[in-house]
Amino acid sequence: MVSFRHIVPGLRPAFREALDALASLVFPAPCRICEATLITASRIPVCPSCLASFQPLRGAACKKCGRPFVSDVAAAAPQPLCHLCRRDVYNFDLARSFAAYTDAMVRAIVLLKYHAVTPLGGWFATRLEEMVARDPDAFAADVVVPVPLHVSRLRERGYNQAELIARPLAKRLGLPLRSYLLVRMRPRPDKLKLTRKERWRTVRGAYAMREDTSIDKVRVLLVDDVFTTGATLDACARVLREAGAGRVVALTVARVAPEWLPVSTAVNPKRARQ
Predict the structure, then answer these.
(1) 207 and 73 assigned to the same domain
(2) Domain range for 144
(3) Within 10 A of 19 (CB to CB), how many other CB atoms are there?
(4) What is the distance between the alpha carbons of residues 52 and 17, in angstroms, rounded to a whole number?
(5) Is 34 a member of any domain?
């Protein structure tokens, strides 16, 4: 979509928005998800229908990791935990996601992750802020930390998609962003799709605290784009907790809902350390 924001800088917001609306009529662009013609001016190249189609996760879920329950029996248990959290697999204290990883959400994440549609990061940050506002005690934090990329991937892409979400979220919450705290030491394998076991094995020992940093008793809000198996969030949380973090709460934009398979002892990080 043609925008007058960059062509004619210094315009008043109202006038600039009117020009952008005119541009959307003269130079119509397609929604980057459904390809319908965009009829309103917006910095986000996604139509309102597609944005509204994202399915918020608000039903019964695991008390710790937020995994949606499909059984009323599990939801009614005295301690409503999924089979992974009953085994104390994850090192974070709490994890929640905004919406399901549907086809439309996959395309939105791709736009943010690979096409630098940065306004989507702000839109997602607003959704996460709304989640925090609904339960501020559960998400109480002192700093916001995005899951880091390996330096080679950061150099190739030019940005970290998790930080594109975490930065506006930190601003909205009035918290400091500490993107330098965590470092990814090993790159992700080039293989496009990883099995559940491969995801756990590739992140084990892949993250570390940056030297000369301290987070003793600090409450961390860890931010990423997608919760797939929870292996990445777990690996980051483990490093933060070992460095002295008082609490680690994780927020992601989307949650994958694959066939839930038990994590074997071989890929359970806590059992592996015993």
Answers:
(1) yes
(2) 55-272
(3) 18
(4) 22
(5) yes
pTM: 0.83
Please say if the pLDDT value at position 265 is more than 50: no
Give CA–CA dist 75/95, Å, rounded. 17
**What DSSP string runs through 223-266?**
EEEEESSSHHHHHHHHHHHHTT-SEEEEEEEEE------PPPGG
Q: Are residues 111 and 30 in the same domain?
A: no
Q: pLDDT tens, 146-196? A: 999 999 999 999 999 999 999 999 999 999 999 999 999 998 877 667 787
Distance CA 70, CA 91 (A): 24
Instruction: Please measure the distance between the N-terminal and C-terminal CA atoms of the chain and give it in whole angstroms.
Output: 56
Contact 96, 227 (CB under 8 A): no
Residue 222 domain flag = yes
Render pLDDT for 218-254 as a digit per residue (tens, 0 to 9). Answer: 999 999 999 999 999 999 999 999 999 999 999 999 9
**143: helix, strand or coil:** strand
Q: Which two tokens stand for residue 94?
A: 């709490």
In the DSSP assignment, the letter for residue 267 is: G
Tokens 């994780």 locate to: 250
Tokens of 93: 């204290």
Instruction: Provide the pLDDT for residue 193.
Output: 75
